[in-house]
Design brief:
homodimer; 320 residues; alpha/beta; Rossmann fold; 6-stranded parallel sheet; 6-stranded mixed sheet; 13 helices; 12 strands; 45% helix; DNA-binding; transcription (chains A, B); LacI family DNA-binding transcriptional regulator (chains A, B)
DNA sequence: TTGTACGCGTTATCAG
DNA sequence: CTGATAACGCGTACAA
């Protein structure tokens, strides 16, 4: 592997001059520049990027923590980040945490060790204090409402959104409403849970724990929801389903079980994934790819803490 | 940021000694070791990993090229790689190529520049000669049949598999058989195309171009397949669908259009994704997560070229 | 058992 | 315009 010093020798100039032409810096005569360029061609020179990183104290690497990539929600966020990373000449380092705290700490460590310039955490299990402790080592960005906290974020106001969706169902005449979530302990889920509680209280509806379905992430989880509902003496008439994948599973399974949608059961999905369009599912659009882009840009921005709320849109189709 | 030299000064020893305790090397007295350890604690020392990489000529980073992450096929491969990377203390660098050659070259460049130790290309658009040119800069692994070539791979013999599936349909009485693929130009697709051609020739069946559906990647693409079939005067009676997602879309859409499956149209999906189980789709299981693991291990292995064929299994359910 | 000195490849500073 | 030379932080022959 030929290095910058070899080039200097070949071209009969100093390493400084070589570095100058390499980085398109001014103050180098056309003549010498050409000699160096020739040497570069001839030697098939490739800069060692680790040396550059060491010298610059920067890696152009951004870490991304997701519990798993094989879910449209995270896949779409990453897709957006990858697009933006590309345009800004950064690369993405993937951390699949599987919601193990040790994995999240790994990522945080890499930030501390300067192997990545920034870290984007899409979903976390670790406590807030842990995050806070690492903020001084580099840029950390979260995908949840961090208002009032010392960390930038791009987020959806899930409280507001849930209230809005619940009111919509209420107006359509529904009084027995339930919802599904991915996992109950997440930050976003907590906002949703609180919204639900507040809503049923305000509208004098019963708070029926059986109407809340946890661990609903994939298409096939829809089957479980339908199964459970069929066992109920007094089933819900409408459901907020926080992933279109799951909503699609519910609709599919309902058809098989001769449950009529929306007359027996109304469904509102989330994200407006393509599958929702094809299956005519009423859904709340969340621009995940766009969110991914913004998360990334916040990560590489030098600026101060910013909270970026993303607006959502109700897409009315045939399941309500 | 305190470095190894500061520690040496603090502990009153040399940098070598510090380095020794840092890396658990022998030949350092318990006494000095403790002094150093104390200094590390006190100073909140963190090694700069870029310096280590420069010094060692290794990064513990492995690159992964996929056209897009938001597809179960690639997501599952990556999932497997991420799991294995975790166990081996490596990190994954994600390259979303979108099938643009320039993106693949970016990744290849990083290998050349030593920013990644190995590169796994799950699907490519670039020519074989391009790959070959970069093999000397580091370990490259492909997810396609590379037998006879100079690059390791973990692959499914899609020719064999397609012939097998076609024969199965033939035995079930089907004579008008078609198939769908993601993109026609891929290596895997070519093997499938060849298998199809050879099969219809051997079995004296007509080679009907309209029975071949391209660009079928997502659930919603199933709708297009059904639409096109309905327009045909002489539609196929059976379809090989190279992604369960698409198969599920076809089944769903067929229901809506009152096309009976399998009596009007038989379907064999691929991958055995959870959605196939839930919708009772006959499918060919491909252990994608397992393949991801093996791809990764081949990437970090020092050994010579290895071709690792992955066996597949037919899962008989209700769509044939 | 310990330490000196150099190499890794590049960028940045500063004197000419 | 040009070029020594000093960082950057760490690993490791080699010498003691």
């Amino acid at each position: 592997m030929t290095n910058i010093r070899d080039l200097a020798k070949m071209a009969g100039v100093s390493v400084t001059t070589v570095s100058r032409v390499l980085n398109n810096h001014p103050y180098v005569s056309e003549e010498k520049r050409n000699t160096v360029l020739a040497a570069i061609k001839e030697s098939n020179y490739q800069p060692n990027i680790n040396a550059i990183h060491l010298s610059m104290g920067k890696t152009f690497l951004v870490g991304v923590v997701v519990p798993f990539i094989d879910h449209p929600y995270f896949a779409l966020l990453i897709k957006g980040m990858a697009m933006e990373a590309l345009e800004n000449n950064y690369k993405l380092v993937l951390f699949q945490s599987n919601y193990e705290e040790a994995r999240e700490l790994d990522a945080l460590q890499m930030l501390k060790q300067k192997q990545i310039d920034a870290l984007i955490i899409c979903s976390r299990i670790c406590g807030w204090s842990t995050i806070e402790e690492f903020t001084r080592y580099g840029s950390i960005v979260l995908c949840e409402d961090t208002r009032g906290k010392n960390v930038s974020s791009t987020y959806v106001d899930h409280y507001k959104t849930f209230i809005f969706a619940l009111q919509y169902l209420y107006q359509k005449g529904h009084r027995k409403i339930g919802y599904s979530i991915g996992r109950k302990s997440g930050s976003n889920s907590k906002f949703r849970g609180k919204a639900f509680k507040d809503f049923v209280k305000d509208y004098l509806l019963p708070h029926e724990p059986a109407y809340i379905f946890e661990d609903c992430l994939y298409f096939e989880d829809g089957e479980r929801v339908i199964t459970q509902i069929q066992k109920m003496a007094d089933p819900p008439t409408a459901l907020l389903i926080t992933s279109d994948e799951v909503a699609a599973g519910i609709v599919t399974c309902a058809q098989q079980q001769n449950i009529s949608i929306p007359s027996d059961l109304a469904i509102i999905g989330f994200n407006n994934q393509p599958i929702a369009k094809m299956m005519n599912i009423t859904t709340i659009e969340i621009p995940l790819v766009e969110m991914g882009r913004k998360l990334f840009l916040q990560g590489i921005a030098e600026s101060q803490v910013i909270y970026q709320e993303i607006p959502v849109t109700l897409i009315e189709r045939n399941t309500v």
